[in-house]
Amino acid sequence: MRIYTRSGDHGTTGIHGGERVEKDDVRIEANGALDELNAVVGLLRVKLGEGHEWQGMLKRVQEVLMVVMSHVATPSALREKNPNTLPEDLDRWCEGEIDRLNGGMRHPSTYFVLPGGTEVAALCHLARTVARRAERRLWTLNREDEVPGVILRFVNRLSDLLFTMARGEMDKQGTEEERWQEFLYKKRK
């Protein structure tokens, strides 16, 4: 089987349903950001090594991202024909993982932190920023063609989960986070 088709040599690419769109179409930009996020999560998994407690969770994230990308690649009018099942509880699943990780940490999150600390924490922050970009591209697409709400919520919560993982890594290693400034909204309470 050839990997190249030459069908994209003139600036278009195919989407689910057979339509061809420009390679910089908002749908392709959104899927590109999701694909990049999946690759960064893969890099994080490699860095963690086999047997790390996060491997199962991150593998599920990658598998879900593949399903999400298939739905983003499908225009809303054709989405019912997409054979990939989109779980409806993705945001709640992320929230559960966030709560579990937070429950094991010694200090609550009350500061903006500078990304870094350890290589794993820095990779979590990199993945978080790519998730935020993917979320922005998804909202742009949503203005043109409705994106399922579960996808929008999932990508938002996924960035929160990746932030929490970065904090969890720092906490586990006993490394102090480099604080930038306190969350103002938490000061007002």
Structural class computed from helices and strand pairing: mainly alpha
Approximate shape:
elongated
Strand order in the sheet with the most strands: 1-2
Describe the main β-sheet briefly: 2 strands, antiparallel
Helix content: 55-70%
Q: Compute the separation of the termini in Å.
A: 61 Å
Number of strands: 4
Count of alpha/pi helices: 6
Mean pLDDT value: 88
Q: What is the ordering of alpha helices and beta strands?
A: EEHHHEHHEH
Q: pLDDT below 50 for ≥5 consecutive residues: which ranges?
A: none
Could you characterize the architecture of this molecule?
The chain has 189 residues and is mostly helical. The chain has helices at 26-48, 55-72, 90-103, 119-144, 149-173, 184-187, and strands at 12-14, 20-22, 111-113, 179-182. The strands form two sheets. The chain has a two-stranded antiparallel ribbon. A two-stranded antiparallel sheet has the order 3-4. The longest helix has 26 residues, at 119-144. Its EC number is 2.5.1.17. This is Corrinoid adenosyltransferase. Keywords: ATP-binding, Cobalamin biosynthesis, Nucleotide-binding, Transferase. Residues 3-167 form the Cobalamin adenosyltransferase-like domain.
